[in-house]
Amino acid sequence: MTLAAGSRLGPYEILAPLGAGGMGEVYRARDPRLGREVALKVLPGEVTRDPDRLSRFEQEARAASALNHPNIITIYEVGLSDTTPFIAMELVDGKTLRELSASGPMPVRRVIDIAAQVAEGLAKAHGAGIVHRDLKPENVMVSKDGYVKILDFGLAKLAEPESGQVSAMLTLARPETHPGTVLGTVGYMSPEQASGQPLDFRSDQFSFGSILYEVAAGQKPFARKTAAETMSAIIREEPEPLAKLRSDIPPPLRWIVERCMTKDPEERYASTRDLARDLESVRDHISEVTSAAETPLARPGRGRRRVSPVLAGATLLAIGLGAGWAARAISRRVVASTPSFHRVTFRRGILANARFATDGQTILYGANWEGEPSRVYLTRPESPESRPFDFGPGDFDILAVSPLGELAILALKKGPAGTGTLARVPLAGGIPREAIEGVTYAGADWAPDGKELAVTRLAGDRTRLEFPPGRVLRESTDYLAVPRFSPGGDRIAFTESGESGAVMVIDLAGGKAKALSSGWRNLAGVPCWRPDGREVWFTAVGPDKVLALFAVTLSGEQRLVTRVPGDLELDDISRDGRVLLAHHAILSVMRGLAAGQEKERDLAWLDGSVPADLSADGKTLLFSETREGGGASSSVYLRKTDGSAAVRLGDGSALALSPDGKWVLALQSAKGLTNRLVVLPTGPGATKLVKTGSLRGFGGAAWSPDSRRVVFSATEAGRPGRLFVCEIEAAAPRVVSPEGFGIQTVGAISPDGRYVIGTEGPGKASLFPLEKGEVRPVSGLEAEERPIQWSADGLSLYVHKGSDVLGKVWLLELSTAKRRLFREIRPAEPAHKLEALLLTRDGKSYVYSASPTLSELFVVEGLR
Which of 105, 280, 319, 509: disulfide with 218, CB 3.0–4.6 Å? Predict the structure, then answer.
């Protein structure tokens, strides 16, 4: 019904209509009893007989009236006049956020101020167990004096309070909707809301992030032509990055919006109170944030000058300290600190692990300096010199230092890839005593009493966490590594890496393991306990695709500690809180020789170029950009080897180029979704999804000569990988090999299309028929050697040893196992092995990549 000015509803005198509000009509009215004006919300006459609408109307009133907070609209009265229910509420003299943002993006300071107030109101509601479920700009009112009010809890649903305590509100209202029912406003729904899944307070966080995105960028994040298309975009697609739409948005605000808008609720804030605190911190430091965001930083260009490692390291860390506020501003506890970095290594090369000795001053580290074998060194902060240990021939790295003065070291190259043999040796020196085989990288730590070791080690196709050695605490097909004891010795932190990485902790009393932080694309270094045992610090690749230092509590609250240009790797934390950090500056080298040319050409494009495939004539290169320049999901590029500009084909990691040059097989990933194989057109055409069913863990791939099908390696749930073949238009892939085999080369399929090379491990390969035929083992491969391409006549294989710095390519005859040296490729940067090597079947063209790394070790004080 429509109420005219001057009419009455209960004791209230109607003054003027204010418009629609959620499920009802809203009027300006006067309360003669108290002589004040109010907003009066009534349900339209045509729905007053709808029990569901009436019930939810009543629920709104009871939910909102129980909340007493300056950023939530105040409810004065819930009443019934004849058959018309109404709510009398606070009248706000101002405009909705929709009205304020109608003319375009809002100023940054105002966005942050409004956001902080909305988050405070939401935190209050969520703390009482109430989920709004219909947040949108129309439901946020800003008064003339700047106060923000959240309106319309008409779709509110009571949920378990974040505290875990049962709210008294449960006696006032009950949920009126059920899983599978979609309610809310389409453009601001969360993915779980759009798909009809059960909701909790994190759904409001997503809607809140969508609102912030819109008022900051001036456009909706998921606007599509129809409601159905919009809901599909919310569930499956990512919005355009805020930084691309508006450069003056400070990074901390972008990070908050991105975290709120992740598809997976687990990746949002564990508590809306933490969200409110982060925004409050940004608001309180707005001058620092905006000035930091406006500071120009030099971008690496193709004509960049080479600087010395010492100068580069000092410059990078100086910039990092200047940018360090970004990490502290969004942490749960903002502590004023000025970290100091003291460099302790000065040679050129690559660092491995590093550890403090028991005295907290002596430092032991592993390194490969100037192409020398990997050795363990000892140094102290007051000296620039390092003393090497003489453990005899071979390569070694440090694992752990016992409180009793004994070292656990890793003898490298004594076991399968990624493992070695653990040996024990006194700190004073001596001959190492080999103790445990198959230990993973950095995979050991001494218990606090120095008597027993916890280890992660390879066991067949699985890795195990053992303590003491032989007693299995956890076993997984994923990669377990870097165990570290808590200060009290009652827990062990470790990492578990599969399709995504997780920082894990296991309680030794109960034997139960849980993930503290998960979903990381790459974890590096060691998860280290703070001296008080309240947090685990770790280094991982963040949204900007560089390794940064993070912290997580035992309850899963996570924060960024610091980041700098380049990659950080956490190695240890001393008892007094000093941090041992390695800084790696990684260069991207991709070079190649085109047919008919005499000199190699630099083919690197951005900062992380990795070659994937080379056309048969050697004229076209397929590659991925995997680091910061490639974006959050990496990027697929195509480039002529004559040096022409590269063309970006789409998101993902490039796998293989079809022989006809029309299609590219790529691996794509999205938050909340498993990886998928797609086919991208190199020219006009639409992207195709390869139907791989429930397969996951995709590895290498190769095209058949007719460009109609692909062979790839993948895993099934809980099982080792194997090879599959799939017609691009077919319904399902077909098994090609037994379990335990993968594809290590894009040139895996024979020129006649009959066989594919499957590798079982270093120096082990077999030829599997794609149709009928017998499996043929490849004889003559040496340790660590792998096939990289078939010869043009299909009678031989080009093979290469991955650890060979000189890049020797041998031609291995399949029928006789005879070999001859075919080519020697010398990397542009000496002492750095080739990471990827592509070769045409005629052997006339090649492309390789390497990642020369300049490492520096620092003792850092003052990090909080």
Answer: 105
Q: Using DSSP bridges, classify how beta strands 349-356 and 363-369 pair: parallel, antiparallel or unpaired.
A: antiparallel
Average pLDDT score over residue span 736-749: 93
Average pLDDT over every residue of 225-243: 89
| Cβ density class 482-510: b for 16+ within 10 Å, e for less | bbbbbeeeebbbbbbbeebbbbbbbebee
pLDDT reported for residue 334: 37
Return d(Cα 59, Cα 252) in angstroms, integer: 36
Strand partners, 821: 810
DSSP assignment letter at 794: S
Give residue 145's pLDDT: 77
Confidence category of residue 58, pLDDT binned at 50, 70, 90: low
Q: How far is CA 709 from the centre of its chain?
A: 31
What tokens appear for 608 in the block?
């992380």
190 vs 196: CA distance, rounded Å: 10
Closest CA to 412 of 378, 376, 374, 446: 374
305: left (phi over 0), alpha (psi -120 to 50) or beta: beta
Structure tokens given for 485: 């004891």
The first and second tokens of residue 521, run together, are 């694309």
- Please, which residues bridge with residue 538 across strands? 550
pLDDT tens-place string over residues 526-582: 999 999 999 999 999 866 667 889 999 999 999 999 888 778 899 999 998 999 999
Q: pTM of the predicted model, to two decimals?
A: 0.49
Helix (H, G, I), strand (E, B) or coil at 54: helix
Q: Which residues pair with 756 in a beta bridge?
A: 749, 768
What are the pLDDT digits (tens) for 127-156?
888 888 889 998 899 988 788 999 876 544
* Nearest of 365, 497, 356, 348 to residue 418 by alpha carbon: 497
pLDDT at position 177, please? 39
Phi, then psi, of 206 in degrees rounded to 5: -65, -45
Distance CA(101)–CA(214), nearest Å, equals 8
- Tell me how many degrees the CA angle 732-735-739 measures, rounded to the nearest 5: 135
Count CB neighbours of 829 within 10 A.
Answer: 13
Q: Which residues pair with 586 in a beta bridge?
A: 853
Structure-block tokens of residue 772: 């009928």
Q: Which of 637, 639, 633, 614 is nearest to 624 (CA)?
A: 637
Q: Which residue has the higher pLDDT, 566 or 166?
A: 566
H-helix or E-strand containing 551? strand 547-553
Structure-token match 């990289």, residue found = 788
- Non-local (6+) Cβ contacts of 586 within 8 A are 566, 567, 627, 851, 852, 853
- Is residue 105 scored above 60 in pLDDT? yes
HSE, CB side, 13 Å, CA atoms: give it for residue 512: 3
Catalytic residues: 134
* Residues in CB range of 848: below 8 A, 6 or more apart: 590, 591, 592, 611, 807, 825, 827, 834, 835, 836, 837, 838
Task: Please count the CA atoms within 13 angstroms of the CA of 56 that sit on its side-chain side.
Answer: 22
* Confidence at residue 301, expressed as pLDDT on a 0 to 100 scale: 31
Residue type at position 351? L
Where b means 16+ CB within 10 Å and e means fewer, 15-37 reads beeeeebbbbbbbbbbbeeeeeb
Peptide bond into 468 cis (omega under 30): yes
Residue labelled with tokens 């629920």: 59
Whether residue 452 is predicted with pLDDT greater than 90 in this model: the reply is yes
| Three-class secondary structure of residue 207 per DSSP | helix
* CB-based contacts of 797, cutoff 8 Å, min separation 6: 757, 778, 787, 788, 789, 790, 791, 811, 812, 814
Contact 648, 637 (CB under 8 A): yes
Element (H, E) at 711: strand 709-714
- Rg of the chain (C-alpha set): 31
Q: How many residues make up the chain in this entry? A: 864
Q: What is the pLDDT of residues 479-495, one digit of tens each?
A: 899 999 999 999 999 99
